[in-house]
Structures are given as C-alpha cells and as structure tokens.
Write a structure and sequence with these properties.
The protein has 576 residues and is mostly helical. It contains 18 helices and four strands. The protein folds into two domains: 272 residues; 206 residues, no CATH class. Helix 6 packs antiparallel against helix 14, helix 7 crosses helix 10 and helix 10 crosses helix 13. The radius of gyration is 51 Å and the shape is elongated.
C-alpha cells in the first residue's frame, strides 16, 4: 500500500470547469486548495484510472458509427451512450475521490450547519448539468447527421439511376435499329440482300488523266518564275541567265520554247519545288472530287437513316472530304502570299545592287582624282558586272510588280483550275458501295454483337433495379429516424446524475466512520436542478428528400416504359 501526497489545488482545476468555462469558487474549501497535503489510500490509482482516457479516444469512438442502410438507432447511438456512461463513471470516481479528501480533512464539520451547499457539491451539480446537456446535443446531432447521410445516399443513387437510364435508352435504341435494319431469316424466309449502290464515271479514265496532265503542266510552268524570285540564287546567276536569254534568239520561232526549257533546267530546285506543290494540289483536288461523288451517291441512292451500314460508309467520306478541302485552301493561300512577296524581294535586290554600283562609282572617282589609275582600272570590271546585274534586277523587279498587280486575278484563275480538277475527279469517279455488315460472311459476327448488347442491356436494367431498391431503403431510413424520439429515456440518466451528491456524502461519512445523518453540513438538501429535455422535439428532413422521392418514382416509370418497348426484353425474356 503506497502513500502519495496531493493537494486539492492540483485536482480541482482538472474537474472543476463548468459549461461556461468558469472555474469553481473556492469558498470555505480554499484552505485545502492552497496547499494542505493529504494522504489517502488508493486515491492515486483512482486518479490514474480516471485520467487514463483522454479526449482523442472519445473522438475515435464517435467516428466509428455504422453508416450502412441497415444501421438502426441502436448502432447510431451506442457510442454516444458509451460516452455518457464513461463520463458519468469518471464523474462518480471524482465524487468518491473528493469525498475521501474532504473526510481526511474533516470537512464538512459535524457540528457546524451551513445554509449553502459545499463548493464540491456545486461542482458536481454543474458538471452533471453539463453532462446531460452534452448527451442531449450529441444524440440530436447523431440522429440528424444520420438523416442527412441517408438523404445524401439516396440522392447519389438517384444520380446513378439517371445515368444508367440514359445509357440503357441509348443501348435499346441501337439494338432496335440493328434489328429493324437487318431482319434475320425466320420460318424459312429468305434473307434480304444487302443494299448496294453503284455509280459509274461520266468520262473515261484516259481522258481524265490527259486533262489533269494539261492542268498540272499549265499551273507548274506558271509558278516556276514566281518561286524562282522567292528563293535565293547563287552569285552571278542573273548574269548567266541573261546570257542564255540573249543566245536563244538564234532559234527563231522556237526561241520561246527554248527559253521555257532553259528556265526549267536552269533552276532545278525551283522547278522541283513548283512541281511538288502543284502535284499536291492536283492530288487534293482528286480526293475532294471523288469523296464528294461518293457522298452524293450514297445520300441520293438510299435512305441512309434506315441503313446502319450505309450510314457508316457515309461517315467515312467526311474525313477525306474535309482534309482535302483544307489542303486545297492552304496551297492556294501559299501561292497567293508568294506572289505578293516577289515584288518586295525584287525591289530589295535591286536596291542592294544599286547601292553596290554607286559605291563602286564613288570609289573609282576617288581613285581617278588621286591619280590612282591602277586601282580605278581594277574596279572597272566589277562596275561593269554590277551594272549588268542591276539591269537584270531591274527587269525582274518590273516583272515582279506586274505579277503582284495581277495577284487577285491569278488567284481567281487558280480557283478555276482547282474547280476544274475537282470536277474532273468527280466525273471520273466510279465505285460500288455495299451495305457494311450484311454479307453472309459477317452475319455471324453481327448476330454475336447484337446478342452481347442484349445481355448488356439486361444487366443494365438489373443494376438500375438494385439501385432503386437501395435508394428506397435510404429514404425509408431517413423517414424512420425523423419520426423517432431518442430522448425519451433522459429521466433514467437524470436519476443517475442526481445520485452524485448523495454518493459524495455517503462516501464522506463512510470514510469518517459516522452516519451521514449526523453531519450537520449535510442537513441542507439542495435539489440538483437538471433542465427539462424536450423529448418530443422533431427532427428536420432535408427538402431534397421529397424531390428525390418524386424523381425516383418517375424514373421507375421510365424504366418500365423502356422495358415494355425494348426488343432485348422480349428476346431475353427478362421480366420488367
């Protein structure tokens, strides 16, 4: 048996805080609170067991409530009831401990009566009232939170049902479309042939290639000079080109043809670039015209809405049609911008050569004035070459200005060439389009896909029914909890709280070895004064619960309507 010394001043602050946060008044027990050491047996163990459970453990108890649909009021409030019993047990231990300490100090005196209650009895009464209020607020909060959680769970089920219904509706429509489009053979009836669209070309392929070659050649030759003005050239290239142009005059009437061939061969990089651009343009025109012909043939040759296979074929024509049109626009824009830039580039080249000629003339004049005839004579050939280059640049600048001034008319001409090429591709295009998926080779796979979709739709309907049942359980739970009165047994807990003061007095008298009725300080019988609890105060149902219930009812009707008209329900024999 161990003996430890403690003071009431160390113990009272731990248990003396009231609901409003004020500390207990010392009154006539202040002498003990100021440091009178008291020895007692077993009080140390009681205090340690009393302070062993801290607040975090109580919080963990509250967070362990069951939140399943089948959790009743007992599972919701069992941790709260455990918390109340735990706190009451701690308060009773505190009362027993204080009774022993007061008995060891001889308080209250046997022969001195007092009209006021002891400070420790005031602490016990306030703590009891605080504990009862805390239990009431916890019970109401727990039940209200459970109602709110049930409503939230029902609303979540409603959202899931809405999404599943939309998916089921789309799947049912697709199954119905597949079944209506392709009727399987039954009772010996022949299988209808797949729908086929055939269109022929209006011109021969040889004629098409001949005309396309002419368009390609014309556009290529017209764009070679334009691209040559844009790309950088080797030094002295203008002089060499001028010499070739001058020597072509001896060919007479063939001089123009010779210059054309020389223009193509003189700058092979420019010629290849121009040829590549025009080839791309003609290829895009071919894709555009042939795709447009296929789309028009499918749309005018059948009812695409009633044919799933032809509708798939039609969708496939949109991509090459859009991509080829975008490519045509980009190529024409490139040629238009290029023609607009050649005038600027030619003027810049002429200005550079003019500055070079002016600089050489100034340098030759300076050498002549200083009688440096050797330097002047060495610069004379450079000046002659620069002047020859300037003449070539001047002619090219004039050509570039004319091209720039005719940029918009040339743009219209390019558009006409594109329309001509696309029209030729449209007239030459010919093909046979068969409804996809209706051939005997593919019919088995189509039947398998339809069967999988029907099974998937049946499973989707079962999931919706399961979610509907779960939502009804949550709604019923919310209404059930809202109609309960969980505070009806508050009087039983109040009686346990009212026994705290008699417990303190009985333990005090027992520790002192006298009858409790012989202690004059205990003659005063002050009632505990616990507040009344509004046991019939109703709980609040969220407004969303009513709308959720109505929405679920309408969704049940929607599911029933889908199941009644669905083909997969009749085929699978799935009950509505």
């Amino acid at each position: 048996m161990s003996t430890r010394f403690r003071t009431l001043g160390q113990l009272m602050p731990k248990f003396g805080s009231l609901t409003n946060g004020s500390e207990s008044q010392p009154a006539d027990g202040s002498e003990l609170a100021n440091g009178i050491a008291l020895s007692h047996n077993g009080s140390d163990e009681s205090l340690q067991s009393y302070s062993a459970l801290e607040e975090p453990e109580l919080q963990s108890l509250e967070e362990s409530d069951e939140r399943t649909p089948d959790a009743g009021i007992h599972q919701i409030l069992k941790n709260t009831d455990f918390w109340f019993n735990l706190e009451l047990s701690r308060l009773e231990k505190f009362a027993v401990l204080q009774a022993g300490l007061h008995a060891d100090a001889g308080l209250p005196r046997i022969d001195v009566a007092s009209a006021e209650e002891l400070p420790i009895e005031t602490v016990l009464r306030e703590r009891a009232s605080e504990l009862l209020d805390g239990w009431v607020s916890r019970v109401r909060r727990k039940v209200q939170d459970a109602i709110q959680n049930a409503c939230a769970a029902a609303d979540s089920c409603r959202n899931k049902i809405s999404y599943e219904l939309n998916q089921l509706d789309l799947l049912s429509s697709e199954i119905e479309l597949r079944t209506n489009v392709r009727v399987l053979p039954r009772d010996g009836q022949p299988t209808p042939k797949p729908q086929t669209i055939e269109y022929e070309g209006h011109i021969r392929r040889s004629t098409y290639f001949g005309l396309i070659t002419i368009l390609l050649t014309v556009d290529w030759i017209a764009n070679v000079p334009v691209l040559r003005e844009l790309l950088p050239q080797e030094p002295q290239a203008e002089i060499y080109w001028q010499q070739l142009v001058g020597s072509s005059g001896r060919y007479g009437i063939w001089a123009g043809t010779v210059r054309l061939v020389q223009s193509i061969l003189f700058s092979p990089d420019v010629s290849l670039l121009a040829l590549g651009v025009i080839l791309f343009l003609m290829a895009l025109c071919h894709f555009f015209g042939s795709s447009l012909r296929r789309m028009v043939a499918i749309k005018t040759g059948s009812d695409v809405r009633q044919s799933l296979g032809l509708r798939s074929r039609l969708k496939q024509t949109w991509f090459p049609l859009a991509v080829s049109f975008a490519g045509i626009v980009l190529v024409i824009t490139f040629l238009f911008v290029s023609r607009g830039k050649i005038s600027e580039n030619a003027e810049a080249g002429l200005a550079n050569v003019s500055k070079q000629v002016e600089r050489l003339e100034q340098k030759i004049a300076a050498d002549n004035s200083s009688q440096n005839f050797t330097g002047a004579s060495s610069l004379a050939p450079q000046l002659a070459d620069a002047k020859s280059t300037m003449e070539v640049r001047a002619s090219r600048a004039e050509y570039a200005r004319r091209i720039s001034s005719m940029n918009y008319p040339i743009l219209l001409l390019n558009i006409v060439l594109v329309i001509s090429a696309a029209t030729l591709a449209y007239l030459e295009s010919h093909a046979t389009v068969t409804e996809k998926g209706d051939s005997p080779a593919n019919r088995g796979d189509s039947d398998l896909n339809t069967g999988n979709q029907q099974q998937h739709a049946s499973e989707e309907a079962k999931r919706i029914s399961s979610l509907d049942i779960e939502s009804q359980i949550w709604i019923a739970k919310a209404k059930y909890l809202a109609g309960l009165s969980p505070l009806r047994d508050w009087r039983g807990k109040a009686k346990r709280l009212e026994a705290l003061v008699p417990l303190f007095r009985a333990e005090n008298a027992l520790r002192r070895g006298i009858d409790v009725h012989n202690i004059a300080g205990f003659k005063n019988q002050t009632p505990l004064g616990l507040p009344d609890v509004p046991e019939e105060e109703p709980f609040t149902l969220p407004e969303t619960l009513v709308s959720c219930d109505k929405d679920l009812a309408s969704m049940r009707l929607q599911l029933k309507a889908i199941q009644e008209k669905a083909i997969w329900t009749r085929n699978a024999g799935d009950p509505a």
